[in-house]
UniProtKB/TrEMBL annotation, chain A:
Key words, A-Z: Membrane, Protein transport, Transport
Family: Belongs to the adaptor complexes large subunit family.
Biased composition, class Low complexity, residue ranges: 630-645
Protein name: AP complex subunit beta
From TrEMBL, chain B:
Protein name, UniProt field: MHD domain-containing protein
Primary location recorded for the protein, binned into one broad class: membrane
Subcellular location: Endomembrane system
A Pfam family recorded for this sequence: Adap_comp_sub
Classification lineage: Eukaryota, Viridiplantae, Chlorophyta, core chlorophytes, Trebouxiophyceae
Biological process per Gene Ontology, one example term: intracellular protein transport
Family: Belongs to the adaptor complexes medium subunit family.
Length: 753, 448
C-alpha cells in the first residue's frame, strides 16, 4: 500500500470518527457505524500501518458508547498497541480503565485489569497496583486469574513495586488455597518468573498439587509437572507413588502433557538406573502413538525427543525400528529426523533391515531424502561393523547414476576410510571408477581427492586424476584446493615420478593462492621439501592413523546437558540453551533502546536489538584488543594457562598459520598501559548512557582466522568473555549469531571512581 | 513465554497479530515468512521450529494459513505447537472452518477468542466450550460452494461446517446433533515381491458435538477390544486369543474421557465439550488386511527392443458391499520413457469413471477411478516406448507406486461403536446421532 493512500485513509477515518463523535444520541446505527470504523482501524493495525495518530478521536468516539463491550474490546486492543508510543495520551485512558475495573460485570472487570496491565508504560505502575490488589481478592475467578497475570506484567516493568507491596506473598497463599485451578496455575507462572517458586516446593506442596492435577487445564498440567520436576523425593517409595499417580498422564492425547510427564519421570529416576530403564521402556508406546497422529508439527517435537533418547539408550529402541520408516506423505523435516534415529538405533540385529529400507529411499525422487538416506547408511557402516553388506550397499550407491547420490556416497566412503583404513581394499576399485569431473560439489570432490591421496598407491590412475584437477587448481573451491595440495604431496612420496608434475603445479598455484591457509601450507611444503625430503615425508605423509571419533559428534557430556533440558527447545536445536538464549542483559539493553527510539519512529529501529551495523560490529570486536593480546602472549605459557583443549589450535593458527598476516599488525597493536580494576562497577543504564554520549576514540578492524573465531565464540562467546575478563574487560552484553556477533565490553581504570 | 502470535496467509500477509511481550522486533513475521519460503534451498520443508537472531519461531500449517508463535525463551516445543494446533481447532469450532477467508471475515471474533486463550503469552482458557461466555461477535460461517444438507463423509467430521455458536445463538441453523467418526489412516509398504512388509493403522475417534446443555455421553466400543503390549492392566483380561479380538497397540484419550467403565464394558464416558476433538487416538499393526493389492508385469517386445508393455493390475480385496472413492494409482516411470499410451482392460461402472494421465514433467502415470467396488479387479495396459535402450531401464526405474483412496463405511482395524448413549433423562430429547466410519490411505506404497 502506498504512503499517499494510507495518509488519505487515515484522514478519512479521523474525519469519520470526529463526525460520529459529534453526533449525539444512542441510535443503534451510530453504534454500528462506530464499530465499522474501529474494525477498519484494527485491520490496519494488523497489517502494520501506524494508527497511533487517531488516539484522541478513537477514545472520544468509544467512550460515548461505554456500555458496548464489542467497541470497548476494540478500543482496549487499540490502546494497548499504541500505549508505549503515546505515554501521555495513555494517561487519559487510565481513568476509564480504572473505572471499568470496578464494574459490576466480572468480564469487564477482568478485561479492564488485563488491558490496564498490558500498557507497558513504566510511570503508570502506581495506577496498576491498587487495581491488581483489588482484583486478587475478587469474588470471580476470572478476575483473579487476570489479576495474577497482572502481577507478572508489573513485575517485568517495575520489580520493586511488586516486592514492596508484598503481592508475591499473596500469590503464594493463593497458590495453596484458591479453589480455581487456573488461578493457582497463574500463580505458579508468576512465582516461577520471580524466582520465588523453589522455596515452596516440599513434599506436602507436591502431594497437594499432584492430587488435584486433573482440575488443571492441559496447559496448566504441563506447568505443574514442570514445577514439580525440581522436587527431589526423599526415598524411592515416594518416586513410585508419584509415578503411579501420574501414569495416566502418559495416555493423554495432548503431547505437551505427555512430554512433561515423561520429563518428570526421567528426572525422578535418574538415581535409580533400573527404574530409569523401565521408564524408558514405558514411554516408548505413548511416544510412538504421538508420532503416528495426523499432525506433523507436534510429531516433529516428539520425534526430536525420540532421537535424544535413542542416542542415550539405542538398545531400547532397536526393536521398534519400523516405527521410524518413512511414509510417502511426510514432510522432509520428519523424514530427516527419522533417518537420523534409524542410524542411531542400528545394531547387529536390525542393521541389515534398516539398510535395506534406506536403500529404497536412495531411489526416491526427492533428492533430500535420497541424500539423507545415503548419509544414514554411511553412519550405520561406521557404527555397526560386523554386519555384512552395508559397505557394499554404500559402494552400490556410486552406480545409481544420480550426481547427488554419487557425491554423498563418496563423502561417506571417505569418512568410513578415515575410521577403518582396512576397508580400502574393498572400496578402492569402486571408487576408482568415478572421475573427479563427475563430482560437482566441493565437499564430495575434496573427499574423493583425499581418498586418492591416502590410497593412491592402489589406484592405478590416481596421479593422473590428481593432475587433471591440478591443471585447473585456481578454479576450484578452497576446500578442494586444500585437499588437492595435501593429497598430491602425500601421493608424491609413494609414487614420485608420476606425481612430480602434479605436485609442481599444485605448489606453484598454492604459493600464489589468496587463501591464507592454502598459501601457507604450500609454502610450508615447499620449504620442507627444500630442507629435506625425508623430513618432509615424515611430516606430510606419516603412516595413516585411524580416526576413532569425529569432531562433529556430540560428546556424551553435551548430550547429558541437553537431556537435563528435556522437553525444551534445547532438544530440537541439539545444543544446551546457553548456546541459543541470550542473556537477559541483552534484552533489557535492547528494550531500553527501543523505548528511546519510539515505536516505528525510525525504520531502522525495527531491527530491534542491533545497535551497530555489521561493519561497526567487526570494529567493535577488533577494538577489544583480543587479537594483539593473543599474538603477544608467549606461546609456551598460553596453553598451560588454559584448561580448554581448543586453545592450542587457536594459537597455532594465529602464530603459525597467520604469521605473515599478523606480522605488520602486531607492532601497531597498543600495549595495555592502563591498569584496570578487576571488579568494575557499572550498571547497564550507565553503560547505555556512556555508549550514547562518548565519541569513538579508536576504531580498528582486525582479521581473525575462522578457527580462532569459532573458538572465541564457542558456548555463547564464553571463551571470548573469559579471556576478556582475564584482561579486566567485562562484557555488559553480548549476542548475535554467526557470522555477526556483538560484544559490549567495559573496563574501569583503577583511578576511576 | 510466547512473545507474539500471528496468523499469516500462504502469501505472507499478516491476518491476525498479537504482541504480548514486546521483546521481539515488530517485523518478525517478515523474517519468518522469508525463512519458510526459501527453506527449500537448505533442504525441503521448513521445520515447525527454527531460530533466527535469537528469536525462536514455532509454527503449524493448517489448510491455507500459518499459525506462528515467537519467543526468546527456552520453551517446551510440544506445548507451543499443541497450543497453536488448539487455536486452529478453536477457530474451526467458531468459524465452521479454518481458511484465510474465514479468518479475514471473522477477524474480530478471532481477536476476541485470542484475548481469552492467551494472556501475556501464557495459555489460559482453551476449551471452545468455556470460551463461549466471553465471545460477543457473531461468526460469519462460510458455506462451501456445493452446499448440501448431508455432511460429506469423505473428510470425516471436518466435513461438517458449523459454528459452535449455532446451537444457542443463531435460530435458523440450530439443530442438536452429535457426530462420531471413526477415522482410520492406513500405511502399508509392499516389497517388490508383493509381500506386505510393514503396515499400520492410525485411527482416531473424532467427536463433534452440538448438544444443548452438554449432556454426558457413553460410547461403547467392541467388547473384544484388546490393547496390546501395555502392562498396566488395561487390556489384559480382554485379550481373547484368536482372530476375533480387535487388537490395538496403544491408544490415548482426551482430557474429558473417564475410563471407569472401560475396563469392564469397553465404554468411554464423557461430557463432550462443544466443538471437535479426538476422544481417542490409537494405532494398530495387527490383524488387518490391506484393502488393495497392485501387481505389475513388464512384457518385452522381442522385435523392438525399445518397446515394452507394462501391465498394472489392481485388486480391491474388501467386501463388495463397499466401494472406494477417488482412487488414484500413482506410478513413477524412469526418464528413459519417451512415449506411452494406455488401454483399460476392464470397464468400471458407470462408464467413464476411469481415466489415466501421463504427467510427463513429473514423470508419473496416474490411473484414476471415481469409484472402485470391493471384490473387483482392474488392469491397465501401458504401451511404453523407451528413448534409448532397454526394458531393463524400465524395470529398474519403475515405481515405487503409491495409492490414494478413501473408503467410506469401512474400518480397517474393525474397531466399532457398539452404542452411543446420550445420558439425559428426557425421553423427548432425541438429537441426531451420526456414527460414521471412514478409512483413508496415508502412505500406501508398492515397491517394484
Amino acid at each position: 500500500m502506498g504512503g499517499e493512500k494510507v495518509r488519505g485513509e487515515l484522514g478519512e477515518i479521523k474525519t469519520t470518527l470526529a463526525g460520529l463523535s459529534s453526533t449525539h444520541g444512542r441510535a443503534p446505527e451510530l453504534l454500528a457505524a462506530k464499530r465499522e470504523v474501529f474494525k477498519k482501524i484494527v485491520n490496519y493495525m494488523t497489517v502494520g500501518i501506524d494508527m497511533s495518530s487517531l488516539f484522541m478521536q478513537a477514545m472520544t468516539a468509544a467512550v460515548q458508547h461505554g456500555d458496548d463491550i464489542v467497541l470497548k474490546k476494540m478500543l482496549y486492543l487499540y490502546i494497548c498497541t499504541y500505549a508505549q508510543s503515546n505515554p501521555d495520551l495513555t494517561l487519559l485512558t487510565i481513568n476509564l480503565l480504572t473505572k471499568d475495573s470496578k464494574d459490576t460485570d466480572p468480564h469487564i472487570r477482568g478485561l479492564a485489569i488485563r488491558s490496564l496491565c498490558s500498557l507497558r508504560v513504566a510511570n503508570l505502575v502506581e495506577y496498576l497496583v491498587p487495581a491488581i490488589s483489588v482484583g486478587l481478592i475478587d469474588q470471580h475467578s476470572y478476575v483473579r486469574r487476570t489479576a495474577v497475570m497482572g502481577v507478572l506484567k508489573v513485575y517485568n516493568i517495575d520489580k520493586p513495586a511488586v516486592h514492596n507491596t508484598g503481592m508475591l506473598g499473596t500469590l503464594k497463599e493463593m497458590l495453596q488455597n484458591d479453589p480455581d485451578a487456573q488461578v493457582a496455575a497463574n500463580c505458579i507462572t508468576v512465582l516461577e518468573k520471580a524466582g520465588d517458586m523453589k522455596g515452596m516446593i516440599d513434599r506436602a506442596f507436591v502431594v497437594r498439587l499432584l492430587n488435584r492435577i486433573k482440575e488443571f487445564s492441559e496447559w496448566a498440567q504441563c506447568q505443574v509437572l514442570e514445577a514439580v520436576s525440581v522436587y527431589r523425593p526423599s526415598n524411592e517409595g515416594e518416586v513410585y507413588d508419584m509415578m503411579n499417580l501420574l501414569d495416566d498422564r502418559l495416555t493423554h492425547s495432548n503431547s505437551a502433557v505427555v512430554m512433561a510427564a515423561i520429563k518428570l519421570f526421567l528426572h525422578l529416576t535418574l538415581a535409580m538406573p533400573a527404574t530409569h530403564q523401565q521408564v524408558l521402556e514405558r514411554v516408548k508406546d505413548p511416544m510412538q502413538t504421538l508420532i503416528s497422529r495426523d499432525h506433523f508439527e507436534t510429531a516433529y517435537a516428539v520425534l526430536a525427543h525420540f532421537h535424544l533418547l535413542a542416542q542415550r539408550a539405542p538398545i531400547l529402541f532397536s526393536s521398534i525400528y519400523t516405527a521410524f520408516f518413512c511414509r510417502m506423505n511426510e514432510p522432509t523435516y520428519i523424514k530427516q529426523l527419522k533417518l537420523e534415529i534409524l542410524a542411531a538405533i542400528a545394531d547387529e540385529h536390525n542393521a541389515y533391515d534398516i539398510a535395506t529400507e534406506l536403500t529404497e529411499y536412495v531411489g526416491d525422487i526427492d533428492p533430500h531424502l535420497a541424500r539423507d538416506a545415503v548419509r544414514a547408511v554411511g553412519r550405520i557402516a561406521l557404527e555397526v561393523q560386523d554386519v555384512g553388506g552395508i559397505v557394499e550397499r554404500l559402494l552400490g550407491f556410486l552406480e545409481v547414476g544420480k550426481p547427488y547420490v554419487t557425491a554423498e556416497a563418496v563423502t561417506q566412503i571417505a569418512d568410513l576410510l578415515r575410521r577403518f583404513p582396512d576397508l580400502a581394499e574393498i572400496c578402492v576399485s569402486s571408487v576408482s571408477n568415478i572421475s573427479p569431473q563427475d563430482l560437482e560439489e566441493p565437499e564430495a570432490k575434496a573427499a574423493f581427492i583425499w581418498i586418492l591421496g591416502e590410497f593412491g598407491h592402489s589406484i592405478q590412475d590416481a596421479p593422473y586424476l590428481l593432475e587433471r584437477v591440478a591443471g585447473k587448481f585456481e578454479g576450484e573451491a578452497p576446500a578442494v584446493r586444500a585437499a588437492l595440495l595435501t593429497a598430491t604431496a602425500k601421493l608424491f612420496f609413494k609414487r614420485p615420478p608420476e606425481c612430480q608434475r602434479a605436485l609442481g603445479m599444485c605448489l606453484q598455484a598454492a604459493v600464489a593462492d589468496s587463501d591464507m591457509l592454502i598459501h601457507d601450507r604450500g609454502l610450508m611444503y615447499l620449504r620442507l621439501l627444500q630442507y629435506s625430503v625425508n623430513e618432509a615425508a615424515r611430516v606430510i605423509a606419516p603412516p595413516m592413523e585411524a580416526v576413532t571419533a569425529f569432531a562433529e559428534e556430540q560428546s556424551p557430556e553435551l548430550r547429558d546437558r541437553i537431556f537435563d533440558e528435556f522437553n525444551t527447545l534445547a532438544v530440537i536445536f541439539r545444543e544446551p540453551s546457553t548456546a541459543f538464549t541470550r542473556r537477559t542483559t541483552v534484552d533489557t539493553l535492547s528494550n531500553g533502546f527501543n523505548d528511546v527510539d519510539g515505536e516505528g519512529a525510525v525504520p531502522a529501529a525495527d531491527e530491534g536489538s542491533s545497535l551497530l551495523t555489521d561493519t561497526e560490529q567487526a570494529e567493535a570486536l577488533g577494538q577489544d584488543g583480543l587479537t594483539p593480546r593473543l599474538a603477544n602472549g608467549s606461546p609456551g605459557a598460553a596453553p598451560a594457562a588454559s584448561a580448554s583443549t581448543p586453545l592450542p589450535d587457536l594459537l597455532g593458527d594465529l602464530l603459525g598459520g597467520g604469521g605473515d598476516l599478523m606480522a605488520p599488525a602486531a607492532p601497531a597493536a597498543p600495549q595495555p598501559v592502563l591498569s584496570l580494576r578487576p571488579h568494575p562497577h557499572l550498571t547497564p543504564q550507565e553503560f547505555q548512557g556512556k555508549w550514547g554520549a562518548l565519541q569513538p576514540a579508536k576504531k580498528e578492524s582486525l582479521m581473525l582466522a575462522p578457527p580462532s573465531i569459532a573458538t572465541a565464540v564457542a558456548g555463547g562467546l564464553q571463551e571470548l568473555n573469559r579471556r576478556m575478563a582475564a584482561a579486566s574487560l567485562f562484557t555488559m552484553a553480548s549476542g548475535g549469531a554467526a557470522p555477526a556477533f556483538r560484544c559490549y565490553l567495559h573496563g574501569q581504570t583503577e583511578a576511576a571512581e | 513465554m510466547i512473545s507474539q502470535f500471528y496468523i499469516l496467509s500462504l502469501r505472507g500477509d499478516t491476518i491476525i497479530l498479537r504482541d504480548y511481550l514486546g521483546n521481539v522486533p515488530k517485523r518478525s513475521s517478515e523474517v519468518f515468512f522469508r525463512k519458510v519460503k526459501f527453506w527449500d534451498k537448505e533442504g525441503g520443508d521448513a521445520p515447525p521450529v527454527f531460530s533466527v537472531d535469537g528469536v525462536h519461531y514455532l509454527h503449524v500449517r493448517d489448510a491455507s494459513v500459518l499459525l506462528v508463535a515467537t519467543t526468546r525463551e527456552n520453551v517446551s516445543p510440544s506445548l507451543i505447537l499443541e497450543l497453536l494446533k488448539r487455536i486452529a481447532g478453536i477457530i474451526k469450532d467458531y468459524c465452521g472452518l479454518l481458511s484465510e477467508e474465514a479468518v479475514r471475515k471473522n477477524f474480530l471474533l478471532v481477536y476476541e477468542l485470542l484475548d481469552e486463550v492467551i494472556d501475556y503469552g501464557y495459555p489460559q482458557n482453551s476449551s471452545s466450550e468455556a470460551l463461549k461466555e466471553f465471545v460477543l461477535n457473531d461468526p460469519t460461517v462460510l458455506r462451501p460452494r456445493n452446499k448440501s444438507s448431508v455432511p460429506s463423509i469423505g473428510k470425516g467430521p471436518t466435513g461438517v461446517i458449523k459454528s459452535v455458536l449455532d446451537t444457542n445463538r443463531t435460530g435458523g441453523a440450530k439443530r442438536d446433533e452429535i457426530f462420531v467418526d471413526i477415522v482410520e489412516k492406513i500405511s502399508c509398504t509392499f516389497n517388490a515381491g508383493g509381500i506386505l512388509q510393514t503396515s499400520q493403522v492410525d485411527g482416531s475417534v473424532q467427536v463433534k458435538s452440538y448438544l444443548t446443555g452438554n449432556p454426558a455421553i457413553s460410547l461403547a466400543l467392541n467388547e473384544n477390544l484388546a490393547i496390546g503390549r501395555r502392562e498396566d492392566g488395561h487390556g489384559h483380561s480382554h485379550s481373547i486369543p484368536g482372530a476375533e479380538a480387535v487388537m490395538l497397540d496403544d491408544c490415548n484419550f482426551h482430557e474429558s474421557v473417564s475410563l471407569d467403565r472401560f475396563e469392564t464394558e469397553r465404554a468411554l464416558t464423557l461430557v463432550p465439550p462443544d466443538g471437535e476433538f479426538a476422544v481417542m487416538n490409537y494405532r494398530s499393526t495387527s490383524n488387518f488386511k490391506p484393502p488393495f493389492k497392485v501387481y505389475t508385469i513388464i512384457e518385452d517386445d522381442p522385435h523392438a527392443p525399445a518397446k515394452a508393455v507394462l501391465f498394472i493390475k489392481l485388486r480391491a480385496e474388501f467386501a463388495d458391499s463397499k466401494a472406494a472413492a477417488g482412487l488414484e494409482v500413482v506410478c513413477p516411470l524412469p526418464h528413459e520413457v519417451s512415449r506411452l499410451s494406455c488401454e483399460h482392460h476392464t470397464e468400471v461402472k458407470p462408464s467413464g469413471s476411469q481415466s489415466w494421465d501421463w504427467q510427463e514433467r513429473a514423470r508419473r502415470l496416474v490411473w484414476k477411478f471415481k469409484r472402485v467396488q470391493g471384490g473387483t479387479e482392474h488392469v491397465l495396459k501401458v504401451r511404453v516406448t523407451l528413448e534409448d535402450g532397454h526394458t531393463a531401464a524400465l524395470k529398474r526405474g519403475l515405481g515405487p507406486m503409491n495409492l490414494q483412496f478413501t473408503i467410506p463405511m469401512y474400518c480397517a482395524s474393525r474397531l466399532a461403536v457398539r452404542y452411543l448413549q446420550i445420558m439425559k433423562n428426557d425421553p423427548k430429547y432425541q438429537p441426531y446421532r451420526w456414527v460414521r466410519y471412514v478409512t483413508m490411505s496415508n502412505s500406501y506404497v508398492i515397491r517394484t
